[in-house]
From TrEMBL:
Residues 1-97 form the VOC domain. InterPro entries: Glyas_Bleomycin-R_OHBP_Dase, VOC_core. This is VOC domain-containing protein.
Length: 97
């Protein structure tokens, strides 16, 4: 599953791979800020990330997860260009407007 997420964020969204470890892949979002780059971490829930002997992640419940969605900023003039690019790549676009 993580491989599919990495492919989507790399090939469709355009993030670059920053660091790839056994249980997590970090993708660089931006280096606009001073200090370390902004990254998103994609975890492989088949591999325990807490260390040996620690409880294994058993999935999460959409009813209990604090994550509702992930949003990224985009300049208004780039929106239609990116929307068309996503559609051309076969991605479904859903919008409230």
């Amino acid at each position: 599953m993580r491989e599919h997420m990495v492919k989507f964020y790399r090939d469709v969204v355009g993030f670059s791979e920053y660091k790839d470890l056994e249980a997590v892949t970090f993708l660089k979002i931006s280096d606009d800020l001073k200090g370390p780059p902004q990254v998103i971490a994609l975890l492989d829930n088949r591999i325990p990330s807490n260390g040996p002997g620690e409880p294994r992640f058993d999935g999460h419940s959409v009813n209990q997860s604090p994550v509702h969605h992930i949003a990224f900023s985009l300049a208004k003039h780039d929106f239609e260009i990116e929307k068309k690019r996503f559609v051309d790549l076969g991605q479904e676009i859903r919008s409230a407007t």
